[in-house]
Amino acid sequence: MDEFEAVSLVLRSIASMNELLVRHAQAVKKMPDVIAVSQRIDFRDYKTGPFLEAYVDAELESDSAICWWLQLELGQDEWLLEASVRLNTAEGQQTLWEAPALTLNRSESLSSSLIEAARKLTSLATLRP
Question: Topology of domain 3-122, per CATH?
Fold first, then answer.
């Protein structure tokens, strides 16, 4: 795979991940105890390197919120992929589900792992404490 194909593969997988999260946000909006939903993807360049954060956040009638969160961080020679579902209440934050962190160093494995993580994350729509 040449450089153009590798970059294209990664960009396509980020777009696919985002589409999964958009559809997830639309489904979460229809849940009876949900007041508001926000969905966002943010790509930043910090001192430690490029960082992609994507999430769906649902504000609930119980004065709490659930966040489906995915993070991709680029290191010097590898990517670090993390995903979790967290409940935020007045008492603090509770992790409801967390995927094992993945360290990846090939565009093919990054692409498939990113989409797989987003699919797993969005399959947890009814996760409640």
Answer: Aspartate Aminotransferase, domain 1 (3.90.1150)
123 phi, psi to nearest 5 deg: -75, -10
Sorted by where each begins, the domain ranges of the chain are 3-122
pTM (2 d.p.): 0.89
Cβ neighbors of 92 (< 8 A, separation 6 or more) are none
Alpha helices in 30-75 (DSSP H): none
pLDDT digits (tens, 9 = 90+) for 37-69: 999 999 999 888 899 999 999 999 999 999 999
**Under 8 Å between Cβ of 85 and 67:** yes
Q: DSSP class of residue 76?
A: S
With residues binned 3-state (H G I as helix, E B as strand, rest as coil), the percentages for the chain, rounded to 5, are 35, 45, 25
Residue that the structure tokens 């680029």 belong to: 74
